[in-house]
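Quarterly update, task 2.4: adenosine-5'-triphosphate-bound model.
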Amino acid sequence: MTTATTQTDIHQGIVRQQKAEQRKKQILNLVLLVLLLLAPTVMYPVFLMKILCFALFAVAFNLLLGYTGLLSFGHAAFLAAGSYTTGYLLSNFSGLTTEMGIIVGTATATLLGLGFGIVAIRRQGIYFAMITLALAQLVYFVFVQAPFTGGEDGLHGVPRGHLFGLVDLSNNFAMYYFVLAVFLGGYLLVQRIVGSPFGQVLKAIKQNEPRAISLGYNVDRYKLLAFVISASLAGLAGSVKTVVFQLASLNDAHWHMSGEVILMTLLGGTGTLLGPVIGATFVVNLEYQLSQGPLGDWVDPILGAIFVVTVMTFRSGIVGEIQNFLRKNMS
Amino acid sequence: MSQVAHKEYEQLRISGLHAFYGESHILHGIEMEVQRGELVTLLGRNGAGRSTTLKAIMNMVGRRTGSIMINGEETMSCAPHHIARLGVGYCPEHRGIFSGLNVMENLTLPPVVRSGGMGLEEIFAMFPNLYERRTSQGTKLSGGEQQMLAMARILRTGANMLLLDEITEGLAPVIVEKLGEVLIRLKEKGLTIILVEQNFHFAAPLADRHYVMEHGQIVEEISAGDLASKQSVLDRYLGV
Amino acid sequence: MSDPFVLETQSLVKEFKGFVAVNDVNLKVQRGHIHALIGPNGAGKTTVFNLLTKFLIPTRGRILFKGEDITAMKPAAIARKGVVRSFQISAVFPHMTALENIRVALQSFEGNSFRFWKSGESLNRLNERCMELLDSVGLTEYANTTTVELAYGRKRALELATTLAMEPELLLLDEPTQGMGSEDVDRVVELVRKAAQGRTVLMVEHNLGVVSKLCDRVTVLAQGSVLTEGNYQQVSDDPRVREVYMGGAATEKQEEAE
Amino acid sequence: MSMILGVPVAVLSGQLMLGVINGAFYALLSLGLAVIFGLLKIINFAHGAMYMLGALCTVLMFDAFGINYWVALFLAPILVGCFGIALEYFLLRRIAGQDHIYSLLLTFGIALIIQGVLTNIYGVSGLRYSMPDVFKGGMNLGFMFLPYYRAWVIVAALLVCFGTWFMIEKTRLGSYLRAGTEDSQLMQGFGINVPLLISLTYGFGVMLAAFAGVLAAPIYSVSPVMGANILIVVFAVVVIGGMGSIAGAVITGLLMGVVEGLTKVFYPQGSAAVIFLVMVIVLLIRPSGLFGKEA
Amino acid sequence: EISNNTVKIGYLADMSGTYRDLAGPNGLKAMEMAIADFGGKVNGAKIEVVSADDRNSPDAASSTARRWVENEDVDMIGGLVASSVSIAVSNILEENDRLGIISGSAASSITNEHCTPNHIHYVYDTYPLANGTASAVVKEGGETWFILTADYAFGHALEGDVTRVVEENGGKVIETVRHPFPTSDFSSFILQAQASGADVVALANAGADTTNAITTANEFGLTQSGQTLAALLLFLTDVHALGAETAQGIQLTTGWYWDMNDETRAWSDRFMEETGVRPTMVHAGIYSSTMQYLDAVKATGSDDAQTVRKQMMETPINDMFAKNGIIREDGRMVHDMYLAEVKTPAESKGEWDLYKIIRTIPGDEAYRPLSESKCDLVTQN
Ligand SMILES: Nc1ncnc2c1ncn2[C@@H]1O[C@H](COP(=O)(O)OP(=O)(O)OP(=O)(O)O)[C@@H](O)[C@H]1O
Ligand SMILES: Nc1ncnc2c1ncn2[C@@H]1O[C@H](COP(=O)(O)OP(=O)(O)OP(=O)(O)O)[C@@H](O)[C@H]1O
Ligand SMILES: [Mg+2]
Ligand SMILES: [Mg+2]
């Protein structure tokens, strides 16, 4: 008898706690949403869009690193795949509506992600990172050589076009709210995934893969699906970015970009939802601020110093450290 | 047996030892003394802090306070490798076999800190499995073979104070018996041994004294002679 | 049911670069039995386990589960068939709560684990069954504790509960009591006894007390081959077994058990 | 003249020779990287920067003090090695035992700092360093003109590579190193001064890179950014060889030099990408690289 | 009608990467020198400078440029080195109707298929580089050519231009090899060049690639075995890095050299005082173009892009950088170019005394004639 009652008590306690956490999450989301809606009135919208694109990219990346434990060193390939496809389509087929361009761009990245995944997913740890890097380098090579990418010059003057053939996106505000919607879509999707039954399995794989196998999970399939979703969202970020900047360039495909997204994610905090967003905001801002000021030719050393400081002093990232702090001081 | 004369020599004295892993306070003021040539055990339930005590002696825990004297020398500020050089041999709880090394390399890895350690032949005679598998990668050994290897490599170094953590874990009963004989032989040679054991049946006949630990403290000290009379106390602590 | 043997190996061989770890093993495990695999260190017990669960690929030989050849199956597929192992080293998901640990196991039967769009709340249906399982191993009050914080013995208990959640027909336990204090050993013995109801258990164990208390049948492995087989009494009376494995301990344990 | 795929055999043999020479650089660099990764589990993204420092040091020492090539060949690696030890002591040591990714990030940051600061001082056009007089000229091998200096590069690199391999795989010190990286605490418990060992190992790996830098100084343009691009290729070499395999790094280094050299003949545009293609193929067939353990 | 009563100039260039030395931070100095020399104010309006590192990435450059023109009222953007950056930025400038003056880029396509009514290409481009050097070398008897090309847009353009010039002058290109960008080891390519037996080995690449290739050619005795080495794009800083010893005898085309006359010497002395190095043609071009721009703003009293550009086109350029320079409708600033040869160590009297000018190539001979232009601005008229 007694055990039965405690059992249900505890169970209910758990559910209650879940609810409370969910409410907290919702409040946080709401606050963020309001901030994001108001942001373009005080800040330069194109800059905000850049941040959102990179934030989406980082969120996509974090689904792998933070929640599946896979370090991909080739995510630039997906960003670029989305970016070039959308850029090429919108520049060359004037009948195409913007969202079609983005959808096809994302689909291309998804397919590429599937290809990468099938090749890479069976490799562990550092080998996984390296094989994704190698594949991304090959993709980079293709982008350098292929005639439709404009080589070093990239694709320029991609028209922003009309959303659903109706909304003129050359208006920065219209563009901003579209990008915001895409970003939120991606963000909420990842949030949903992380909490989903699928997310639980990913978490399990991350923590103890052999055990997950012995529980009957075909872990390769799970990792593959996570990889493809991540690639797809990265491609979406690339597609949207191309529309915003009307430009697709080799930069997106370079391994530095794959490195950058790792930095953003780590700086913000892996395995937290908000971390990559904060990290991307921070890095994009920092690069911009530094390249502007009198420190123009000191960007690299200062970035370098920031990485060093991050690793040495707040390894869990900005959001991670805040969470740790709250945990310590709340309980 | 010249060592018998020096038996009263104090090999280890621990007083007021506290140890921490990060925030968690694991040892709460350990007091113990071990004479040269003695074999004492640390008994207790899982998580009582026995392994931590050994690690604290080796300066392998996060932070520690108090005093640990080895051979009359204060070691609180010594780096672990200095402590080993004082003649302390440590056999860790989870074997610590190196996968990058083969069996032979694992065996000869710890530097000899004193003369009088066992020779390789002697060791191979004791653990023939090891000889058979001497060129395999260390971690390709079976669980029990790894345990043998972990024990064997300490015997080689000539350390005169051994800290042994759960050395019978996962070993076949015949090997356990053999290990018991080895420990008796070592004791006769005048080595000091601190044994952490779950297998009380193994430890009981070997030990001179038993310390019982609970919640990071020593709650009872029982000498071999008192074992029978204090059996009920022991049962209470160990839940036998 | 026709076949009394749930698991059968036929001439199972495993070689590691010229070293034969498992040599022509024919093992038959009867339905409903608790079957122990004992033997000296390095006899090949863990290797046999690894072969049965496909963490290693046999060099030769066949493995039959309920008469079906499972030699070529993948680890995950075998787990789904109902052959589930627990590990020699404790295997849990360290940063999940005890409850979540079990839920992940239960989830693998749901077949909807690829649904990444489903809300996490859909999993709460499973909580009740999780609590039952936790209760059965005495971990009710730790349901919401992160697993890293659990003591070693409790981790083992949790692991066992997770394994039970898989509703295995055949449970493979590799040294379930290793590193446990006697109190915990007793608890695990009870646990295994309970778990064995209605299913078959194959275990590796060095603690002869446990073997003598629990097991219906014992197979002794030495140098990769089966030395002998029988119930505990028969096996422990065999002088060869005493020589290579039990030493003087056999008699002690027996007395104790009685 | 006989031809292979439209290329004269003589040209091809010349290219093979050059492939081996370039491979010698890869071998040296990847060796250092493999030592550092294999033994310390540090992904040393500062390796390219260390290579650059070796070369830069050579040039600066000559400009400032007239220190000649032979002295620099010893002095520069030692100086850079000491710098590496300092880095290890003050920074890397503090993140020991953390995930790979942190050492990667940290060393990447360090590389950015070093390269950025030096770029601001010395620019990117490259500094001048003349070939030591003994090496002026070359020999005619019949199929090619082989500058003496390139011949020296092969000899020097191979000697150093073999010495390193021997030390790590065959000596007692090497076994300390290998063990210390797996469980440094336990090694310390055996009486070995592991922190010192680790510092020295990192310093040694860095020295190898700096040594390659000195070898490169007379033939490549010496500038603060010279190491930035070679890094990723050298990483690929280490991975193809099997991370942590010392012999693997050396052999693969030479092999990749040749593969790249041949690509430069048949499909020059692809010569930067070919190594990655090889890497994908190798990892598909052998998951832990050509010479990696646990196949 | 100067917007905000400020003339705001943005300096956008590679501050830390491959092209740092030829423009970079010192280019900003040159621009600031021009503004100071101009008096710091134009018609009472402030002159302000903002600068940024383009990191050689069209991506970073275009987002900076976009922000400058859309959000910070920058009127003119100068510097601009990597061709990809220049093309990306000129698109944004056209969209927002601001002005760009490109001083560092080489690609002749910038005023050809990529021309816009919103930018001016000031210092040089691949066309005269090929024209000057290639025709001179062919005329000296270099009949068969081996071209080593950097495998990206700039290299391809240069390769195309050289091939045309060589063939026009009766020579023949027998082999072209494209090397990845960047490449650090050129030995394999030099060996191929030697094996080709061509009279001339031309380097259609830039920066570290060129200097590495020259060093290696030297090491492998390319010139000793009778082949001529022609570097098509070589900046003073590159030659300085190579040293007269290695680079001696190489012919090259340049738009300007510091030691041409008193005027150039005087300015470059001042520049050297500021920066510690001698200016490249790009540095001089940045100074000159900034001056020209400010003059035009002063003359028209406006900072409107089209007004200023029109004024600049109507005013011939006569300063230390160029004599009778003309900005054409496609945005090309046409001025005399110079064929130079690197001095031998014996001839060189200082570390920066590196060139002797062999020939002046008149502007309209050097640059692509408008009749061949694919620029919309030209063809529409
Ligand atoms: N690295 C660590 N970090 C934090 N806590 C630890 C760590 N290692 C051990 N502990 C905790 O310290 C306590 C004592 O552990 P210790 O390993 O000394 O126990 P023990 O008596 O040896 O028991 P066992 O039978 O489990 O080995 C336990 O509560 C354990 O959870
Ligand atoms: N991957 C491997 N490569 C080479 N040899 C191996 C490998 N795995 C196990 N072995 C060898 O095979 C033999 C059997 O090992 P196994 O782990 O099965 O023994 P075990 O019966 O479980 O012993 P224990 O009771 O000590 O755990 C041992 O001698 C071991 O060294
Ligand atoms: Mg313990
Ligand atoms: Mg075993």
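Highlight for this quarter: Residues 89 and 154 of chain B are 6 Å apart (CA to CA).
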